[in-house]
Amino acid sequence: MRLLFFFTLKKIEFIRSVGNLSQVPKDNLPEIVLCGRSNVGKSSFINSLFNKKNVAKTSSTPGKTRTLNYYLVENKFYIVDLPGFGYAKVSKTERDSWQRLIENYLNSSRNIEYAFHFIDSRHSPTQLDILLNRLLRELEIPTVTILSKIDKPKQSQLAKTKKEIKEAFPELIENENLFYYSSITGKGKKEIVNIVTKLFLS
Length: 202
Ligand SMILES: Nc1nc2c(ncn2[C@@H]2O[C@H](COP(=O)(O)OP(=O)(O)OP(=O)(O)O)[C@@H](O)[C@H]2O)c(=O)[nH]1
Ligand SMILES: [Mg+2]
What we know:
Layout: E1 12-18, E2 31-36, H1 42-49, E3 68-73, E4 77-81, H2 92-107, E5 112-120, H3 127-138, E6 143-148, H4 155-168, E7 178-180, H5 189-201
């Protein structure tokens, strides 16, 4: 019988912020990419997963992360924190340039082993979530969908989101490629740590 241990992830180093794909690290280590709308909790996820307060910069104002941020984990793989999409309060020019950066990055021949697609558990998936999901499937990037801020919704609200998620993305199966997460309570952390450990650290 194989026992699953609850490993803890400890070592994480911020490597660099990339505003242009020519600046990405050249060592070709595998990458997990965090993507999804602005303000869904992607950067907070990094801090909570590693029990750090400030390794990733977070903000209650959407649009905090504006570059691809590379974090090296246990010297073995990168977590790449992407700017959130769908943030209305930046200029169209800036929004277009982020979108191009994200699309070019996902389309690049980088070693993207996994994508974590975050959706706020209080909200219905948006058109942009549907497009992102489609793009990741077209590119054959294995993806886990994470319903974030799971400490927030009431039961009825959560039931509605779950139903909508399953309608929009019928391929999602709980605890296989669909997880619930709270950076505040730590719910879902064990499951995500297990995924990461199995992929890169065991
Ligand atoms: N209640 C609750 N709040 C959270 C959780 N995760 C993040 N937040 C809050 O949500 C806000 C946005 O979090 P970020 O981690 O900066 O979100 P992001 O997805 O990185 O946003 P962008 O950088 O704009 O794309 C912050 O005020 C966080 O404190 C969570 O699990 N529960
Ligand atoms: Mg962020």
